[in-house]
From TrEMBL:
<dbReference type="GO" id="GO:0008270">
    <property type="term" value="F:zinc ion binding"/>
</dbReference>
<protein>
    <recommendedName>
        <fullName>UBR-type domain-containing protein</fullName>
    </recommendedName>
</protein>
<keyword id="KW-0479">Metal-binding</keyword>
<dbReference type="InterPro" id="IPR040204">
    <property type="entry name" value="UBR7"/>
</dbReference>
<feature type="domain" description="UBR-type">
    <location>
        <begin position="44"/>
        <end position="114"/>
    </location>
</feature>
<keyword id="KW-0862">Zinc</keyword>
<keyword id="KW-0863">Zinc-finger</keyword>
<feature type="zinc finger region" description="UBR-type">
    <location>
        <begin position="44"/>
        <end position="114"/>
    </location>
</feature>
<dbReference type="InterPro" id="IPR001965">
    <property type="entry name" value="Znf_PHD"/>
</dbReference>
<dbReference type="GO" id="GO:0005737">
    <property type="term" value="C:cytoplasm"/>
</dbReference>
<dbReference type="GO" id="GO:0061630">
    <property type="term" value="F:ubiquitin protein ligase activity"/>
</dbReference>
<dbReference type="InterPro" id="IPR047506">
    <property type="entry name" value="UBR7-like_UBR-box"/>
</dbReference>
<dbReference type="InterPro" id="IPR003126">
    <property type="entry name" value="Znf_UBR"/>
</dbReference>
<dbReference type="Pfam" id="PF02207">
    <property type="entry name" value="zf-UBR"/>
</dbReference>
Length: 415
């Protein structure tokens, strides 16, 4: 069947298959994604003056700093490192722009040249060299058949392939049926000993593949808790706070269950006062925390950061462990993205306002000229859309035709 007919059919199939709706949605989604990473930063000014920002998008320029021990802000990545080999690191906490400082081998910063020779509080993991995960591969990985998404540890901020985080199967990662994460934060194997104190908390802070809920807790079967406390004990300790004893069978395989024999007793949270410790203990001296040998990745449930205790003792302990940022609302990606979304909405509003102001500043003739241009565009698109089944793919030929017709109209009016 090598006739002309089948060749034509093949051509049709080779056309890009995107509908107008999908095309516009795609552009908007890309813009939103970019705005979320940039945190609503318009990328015009170097952020150095703001000091160590709680969170910002960071880039590493391997042309200027091949050793990967320097990072620059968004504006600098654009203004000072255009055409260089720049690695996008997504967001990092407590980072100050290094652009043009002593690490940059004489390459000056065009936006903010007056900088200290070094930012001593910056830290640089291997992401700054362009490698990620325990496997140290680049992203995107030129040798991978398919680019898979990676997950970021909320402590060290390195990125990991889901199958390299030390679980028996990626099935143990709390995802819903669509593959969307059911967890807010991930803590990698390397960082989990620093966060071992979280094991004192009830299981509501742990993400599970089925949503944590009180009703589920009451139906949870105690038989999965091999070696753990017997059902009777749970009943006695519960005092009505069932949610405190949700088990972890859904999140971790049996071998990985954090509630192993060495796991500390879970506290029943006391929310009665802000000053009193929710855990009712001095976590710094709690001896059940000594067993941090077992390095397991943790998945934390949505809203877990609000649950953890903020009493003086606990707060000091977080400081000693170097994780004080966990109780800072602005540290979470969720908050960062929320602020970014608000800034984006404001920006879009301002853009609309600016367009209206621009029109008002024009004289009558200019207005007519522009408006008729816009109208031509609208009409052309309108008739194009009407002539077209919106669910059908749009090809580059179709788009070209629209603009050719517009050009013709303009010539007609000018002549
Ligand atoms: Zn900068
Ligand atoms: Zn550079
Ligand atoms: Zn710069
Ligand atoms: Zn990996
Ligand atoms: Zn980590
Ligand atoms: Zn406390």
């Amino acid at each position: 069947m090598a006739g002309e007919g089948s060749a034509a059919a093949f051509d049709d199939e080779a056309e890009p298959t995107v509908t107008i709706g999908e095309y516009i949605e795609g552009i908007e989604a890309e813009e939103l994604e970019a705005d979320l990473v940039l945190g609503g930063d318009d990328g015009k000014e170097c952020t150095y003056g703001g000091g160590y920002l709680k969170r910002q998008a960071v880039f590493s320029c391997l042309t200027c700093v091949p050793a990967g021990v320097g990072g620059v802000c968004t504006a600098c990545s654009l203004a000072c490192h255009d055409g260089h080999e720049v690695v996008e690191l997504w967001t990092k906490r407590k980072f100050r722009c290094d652009c043009g400082n002593s690490k940059f081998g004489g390459h000056p910063c065009k936006l903010c040249p007056e900088k200290d020779p070094e930012n001593s509080a910056n830290s640089y993991n291997h992401n700054f060299k362009g490698s990620y995960c325990t496997c140290g591969r680049p992203y995107p990985d030129p040798e991978a058949k398919e680019q898979v998404e990676m997950i970021q540890c909320c402590i060290c901020e390195d990125w990991f392939h889901e199958d390299h985080i030390g679980l028996n199967s990626i099935e143990e990662i709390p995802h819903d049926e669509e593959g969307e994460p059911l967890y807010e934060d991930f803590i990698c194997q390397k960082c989990s000993p620093d966060c071992y104190f979280l094991k004192l908390y009830p299981d509501t802070v742990w993400a599970s593949r089925t949503q944590n809920s009180v009703s589920q807790a009451s139906t949870t079967d105690s038989t999965v808790m091999d070696g753990g406390p017997s059902h009777d004990n749970i009943e006695k300790r519960e005092n009505g706070s069932l949610a405190n004893h949700l088990n972890c069978e859904n999140t971790y395989g049996d071998d990985n269950c954090p509630k192993d024999n060495a796991a500390p007793e879970k506290a029943i949270l006391d929310d009665s006062s802000d000053r009193k410790c929710k855990l009712g203990m001095d976590i710094g001296t709690n001896t059940t925390l000594v067993d941090s040998e077992k390095k397991l990745p943790f998945f934390m449930s949505k809203g877990w950061r609000e649950v953890i205790c903020r009493c003086e003792t606990c707060t000091n302990f977080y400081g000693e462990q170097g994780v004080a940022y966990l109780i800072d609302k602005d540290d979470s990606i969720e908050e960062y993205e929320k602020v970014a979304k608000q800034k984006r909405e404001k920006k879009l509003e301002q853009q609309e306002g600016a367009e209206a102001n621009f029109l008002n500043s024009l004289d009558h003739v200019q207005k007519i000229e522009i408006l008729s241009g816009i109208n031509d565009m609208k009409n052309e698109f309108q008739s194009f859309l009407e002539s077209f089944d919106p669910t059908k793919p749009v090809t580059s030929e179709d788009i070209k035709a629209v603009f050719e017709n517009l050009a013709k109209k303009k010539r007609q009016r000018l002549s």
